Amino acid sequence: MPISGIAISVDPRYLESVRVEVQTRYDGEAAAIPAEAENYLVVVLETKTTGEMKQKFEAISQLPGVINAWVAYHSIEESFPEL
């Protein structure tokens, strides 16, 4: 299961709408960074495939108000059958 941490630079006027969109449409966990960097979100995404992760990342990058988005962390956890 791919897990990614994504940093998103957002026009401050769109910060709340981007956060809500990421959480509701893309099942991401989004948190705003403290006031000193008020135009950033940190998002954690979990998907079933790397293809799905790529699609979600590209879609989030195109949301209105998103200035830039980049992957800060990426890991693939293998699931093993229980013995």
Notes on the structure:
This protein has two helices and four strands, in the order βαββαβ. It has a four-stranded antiparallel β-sheet, covered by helices on one side. By secondary structure, the chain is α+β, with helices and mostly antiparallel strands. The protein is 28% helix and 37% strand. The chain starts with a strand and ends in a 7-residue tail after the last strand. It has a single domain, classed as Alpha-Beta Plaits.
In helices, the fraction of residues equals 25-40%
Work out the helix count: 2
- Encode the helix/strand succession as letters: EHEEHE
Q: In what range is the share of β-strand residues?
A: 35-45%
The CATH homology group name: Lrp/AsnC effector binding domain/regulation of amino acid metabolism (RAM) domain
CATH architecture assignment: 2-Layer Sandwich
Observed structural traits:
single chain, alpha+beta, Alpha-Beta Plaits, 4-stranded antiparallel sheet, 37% strand
